[in-house]
Design goal:
With 513 residues, the chain is mainly α. Helices cover 59% and strands 5% of the residues.
Length: 513
């Protein structure tokens, strides 16, 4: 087995360029990081943060929630403890009863950005096995990739799962370079960490197991022993991060069963999920980037068969293959489910770019022509995803009528007020207000609404069906709202305008208050 992977083509690592790439990736992920907090957070962020809050306030480390393993939940719990301590020192609060999820979303997202930055660094480390040029190109692609930039803005499990998958790749590569039981223990533990973040992360164990199969017979460590170490460390790491899978076995099994039931097979009449994921990847990478990914995939497959150094090429293929096989065909799907494959695709593209650079450098062309060709390849690969990321960040951080409504509410509606709202993508934090959402307030009896103590109404053109596009003049609710307008007084009207999207929002206060 060759041991010179780190001295692959492309010369020494370009560390100044790498740090510039990493900085660019962090800036993209920090931009508008707090957008939507606390009224319009990510679709699954509350599942993480409400569990964290339950543990923080009760001291009961049993999450009583097993749709996810608890590895990432405990990481966020540690971040929440730090946030609370900092807030206490700043006299923002002094007891855990005073805080809620909305106080911790921003810190949780900062932690997600840190994990994303670590993933970029790990991709660079993995890419060095194929040369400094391939490593830098792969890191640059991941740094600007819209899918990874987008998901790094939220406290969800997909970003840390992607980190753990790439960590497993790096540790497996190191175990191949210097085979030892300790090295395989670390690689197996990284796979267990991936499973402890999200159940489908267990597929990461395919990498160290394949590496074990490639060990030479009669050499230390023995295949059987190394395989046992990989499996044992993987299992141990999973139960270390999700200990109540043992201590509360029925709840764990029920939670896992609930999660598994949600991912029933996709209907035969629906568009194939592999095609849906392919479209998402093309949108993320752009056509030049996706063509480079395919070229790198083809080169990897050929080298995995013919060599040299077949194992490192196999390791670049095995996890994407088994992981995509697992998620393909699920009826319930989001683009982010495929994100753990993205860093491997970035390395494929980096390998293809390095190969292209080598071919250009071997041409009998003038130096300026070679430099122009290299710049053109890099620009074609990086600029489309960079533009996509910048556009998404601007969209994510754009001011909306919901933003304006929240800014008004937090300064004018006192805590613990009873609020009934029909505004979509606008959920008030439960720790501040007694809030209830109604799909349409006119479905309620106005006298009953008053009798239940509702002090504030939030009306939205999303519910009544008219929406002035870019018109600052309010249209107002239709006649069906008249009984409520007799009992509540309009105190604030927020309308969409050029540069401010969203529904028309009317905030009403109970008359006589």
């Amino acid at each position: 087995m060759r041991m010179d992977w780190l001295s692959g083509g492309g010369g020494r690592p370009r560390w100044p360029a790498f740090w510039l790439v990493l900085a660019a990736g962090v800036v993209l992920r920090l931009a508008h990081l707090g957008a939507g907090i606390p009224y319009d957070v990510g679709i699954d962020e509350p599942a993480i943060m409400t569990t964290v809050m339950r543990i923080l306030k009760s001291g009961d480390f049993n999450p009583h929630f097993f749709e996810y393993p608890t590895g990432y939940i405990y990481v966020q719990l540690g971040g929440a403890v730090v946030t609370f301590l900092v807030g206490a020192m700043r006299h923002t609060w002094r007891a855990v009863e005073q805080v809620g999820p909305s106080d911790f979303y921003y810190g949780a997202r900062l932690l997600s950005v840190a994990i994303a930055a670590g993933t970029i660094a790990l991709v660079h480390q993995a890419g060095l096995r194929w040369g400094a040029r391939a490593a830098l190109a792969a890191a640059a692609l991941l740094a600007v990739l819209p899918m990874h930039v987008r998901e790094s803005h939220f406290a969800l499990t997909d970003t840390p799962l992607t980190f753990a998958a790439v960590l497993t790749l790096v540790l497996t590569l190191r175990a191949c370079e210097r085979p030892s039981l300790r090295a395989f223990l670390f690689a197996g533990a990284a796979a267990g960490l991936a499973a402890g973040i999200k159940y489908n992360g267990l597929m990461a164990v395919s990498m160290p197991l394949v590496a074990v199969l490639a060990l030479e017979r009669g050499r230390h460590p023995a295949r059987a022993t190394a395989a046992l170490v990989v499996v044992a460390s993987c299992v141990a790491a999973f139960f270390l991060t999700t200990p109540y899978a043992i201590f509360d076995l029925p709840a764990f099994l029920n939670g896992f069963g609930t999660q598994a039931a949600a991912f029933s097979p996709r209907s035969d009449s629906a568009e194939p999920s592999w095609l849906v994921y392919a479209k998402h990847m093309q949108l993320a990478f752009g056509w030049p980037g996706i063509l480079l990914c395919l070229a790198g995939l083809g080169l990897s497959a050929r080298r995995a068969v013919k060599g040299p150094d077949r194992l490192r090429w196999v390791l670049l293929l095995v996890f994407p293959a088994v992981y995509f096989y697992l998620i393909n065909g699920w009826g319930f799907m989001f683009a982010r489910y495929a994100m753990p494959v993205v860093p491997f695709m970035a390395v494929w593209a980096g390998v293809a770019m390095a190969e292209a650079f080598d071919r250009v450098s071997n041409r009998a062309w003038a130096r300026i022509v070679k430099q122009t060709a290299v710049v053109a390849i890099v620009a074609a690969a990086v600029i489309p995803p960079l533009i996509g990321s910048v556009q998404w960040v601007r969209f994510h951080g754009a001011e909306t009528t919901q933003t304006q409504a929240w800014n008004w509410i937090k300064g004018n509606i006192w805590h613990n007020s009873v609020v009934l709202s029909e505004a979509r993508r606008f959920e008030l934090p439960a720790e501040r207000y007694r809030y209830e959402f109604a799909r349409q307030i006119t479905d309620r009896d106005p006298d009953a609404v008053v009798a239940t103590g509702v002090e504030w109404l939030i009306l939205s053109s999303d519910a009544w069906g008219t929406r002035p596009e870019g018109n600052a003049s309010p249209v107002g609710p239709p006649a069906a709202y008249a009984p409520f307008l007799q009992r509540y007084q309009v105190v604030k009207v927020i309308t969409p305008a050029p540069g401010v999207a969203g529904p028309e929002i009317h905030i009403l206060r109970r008359a006589g208050r």
